[in-house]
Amino acid sequence: MTKYLTEKVIGTLKENGFGYLKVDYNETIGVGCDGAESLGEGLRQAVAATQDFFVKLTEEMPDLVIENCASGGHRLEPSMMELASMASFSDAHECKCIPIIAANLHRLIRPEQSQIWAVLRASDDIHRIRYSLCAGFLGRLCLSGDIFDVSDENWNEVLEAIAFYDKVKEIIRSGFTKVIRCNADSYGDPHGYQAVLRTLENKSLLVVHTFVNGGNPHISDLLFGQKIIGEWGSELSGDFRAKVFLLEAE
Question: Which of 110, 134, 234, 241 lies 20 to 30 Å (CA to CA) from residue 46?
Fold first, then answer.
């Protein structure tokens, strides 16, 4: 099997100059695999063989970027993430719970590896555009949707978000998530707000999203003695608004 995959997968990638590979696995792993002394041992051997092939991929093509997908296939765990460049963690890209899921992933994989898709629609108002983009600050900001059809005003917001992301990317990549505060008790109909604080040395990134009846959270309570030196997003005065803050220790 390894010889076959080397020829058909690695050979094809090399011959056609691919630099990016997405490995999807939206399927149940079942109760196990035949061929060993138990179904569990068979499954362990199958997973180990998969990981060995990931290692072979990176040895044969050291510059290959591998996207590890998906949570449905039980691939979002440390030993697999050590073998991949990044992961697309959820299909809930257009749901309003996306920042909650993205924050929860801080407990499982590094934000520098966590692809957060900001799906932009031509019909989105400016607050929805900012809400989606701010969620991207909880990991690797990726753009999707009606990219070529959004208004000039909303596209300017995208450019501003990317510029602000560039200012805080080191905190996202190398920082430590100190606070995840979310008082929403539902993914499908979230109420309240969420705040995530990630710190690197004397600077921090604070990402705040409001949900139903979550407007006007007490930002001063979330600064932890730091001062605001930069910000981008909507005023947090209504439902489903979002803003990101760059903080510095006083």
Answer: 110
Q: Which residue has the tokens 């505060």?
A: 181
Render pLDDT for 42-56 as a digit per residue (tens, 0 to 9).
988 988 998 999 999
Task: Report whether 157 contacts 133 (CB < 8 A).
Answer: yes
Measured CA angle at 244 (ends 89, 126), to 5 deg: 85
The DSSP code for 129 is H
Distance between CA atoms of 223 and 44, rounded to whole angstroms? 45
Where residue 129 falls (left for φ over 0; alpha for ψ -120 to 50; beta otherwise) is alpha
* Model pLDDT for residues 150-204, shown as the tens digit of each residue: 999 999 999 999 999 999 999 999 999 999 999 999 999 999 999 999 999 999 9
Task: Give the pair of three-digit tokens for residue 76.
Answer: 């979002």
Tell me the H-state helices in 144-247. 152-174
The answer to whether the predicted template modeling score (pTM) of the entire model surpasses 0.85 is yes
Output 212-221 pairs: Cβ under 8 A, ≥24 positions apart. 212/239, 212/240, 213/239, 214/183, 214/184, 214/239, 215/239, 215/241, 217/193, 219/245
